[in-house]
Write a structure and sequence with these properties.
Elements: H1 17-25, E1 75-77, E2 85-87, H2 103-106
Antiparallel strand pairs: 1-2
Region (Disordered): 109-130
Protein name: PHF7 protein
Domain PHF7/G2E3-like PHD zinc finger: 48-106
Length: 130
């Protein structure tokens, strides 16, 4: 009764239409409404955009919550997860930088990323550093 018709499905095959029709013929009535847990607004935050600077030191005069549409205090969200944000000056990003990736997605930047190339026989390829 709490799940409503939008979440009512066969527990084995996840079919909705045939299962709903079969349950109806058996006399089981399911209300035509969304799940009751969606009525109390418990999931509203999932639709909101992240709105604060998560840099270790926020330099914005208006604080972490300030975000302009353009300019240096525009809030850039992580291009991979969109769960973290930063102002351009807070992460030393130039004015032309269109995207940014948080450390959680990109990994900590401890220096220039190097790759080692190994051949099938396990010997380093020419020009590769070991």
């Amino acid at each position: 009764m709490r799940a409503g018709s939008s979440s009512f499905q066969c527990p084995l095959c996840r079919d909705r239409d045939a299962f709903f029709l079969e349950m109806f013929f058996m006399g089981i009535r399911i209300p035509l409404r969304p799940p009751s847990w969606e009525n109390n607004g418990a999931f509203e935050a999932l639709g909101e955009r992240h709105g604060r600077c998560d840099a270790s030191e926020c330099l914005c005069p208006g604080g972490r919550e300030q975000a302009e549409g353009e300019g240096p205090w525009q809030l850039l969200l992580c291009c991979s997860c969109a769960a973290e944000g930063t102002h351009r000056p807070c992460s030393s990003l130039g004015p032309r930088r269109a995207s940014w990736e948080c450390d959680g997605c990109a990994g900590p930047r401890t220096g220039k990323r190097q790759s080692t190339q190994v051949t099938l026989d396990g010997v380093l390829a020419p020009g590769a550093q070991g």
